[in-house]
Amino acid sequence: MPITGALRPVMTRSTSFRQGFTLVEVLVVVAMVGVLL
Predict the structure, then answer these.
(1) Total number of domains in the chain
(2) Partner of 30 at 20 to 30 A CA spacing, among 5, 11, 23, 37?
(3) For the segment 14-33, what is each residue's pLDDT rounded down to a tens digit?
């Protein structure tokens, strides 16, 4: 039961994450590069 409960949110997160992953990834990369530079 705990396994399915833990897998379910991960699956939903991955699906929703896929949609806006590119935008978030770009923003994070730009932010990290800005901090490093």
Answers:
(1) 1
(2) 11
(3) 665 565 567 778 888 889 99
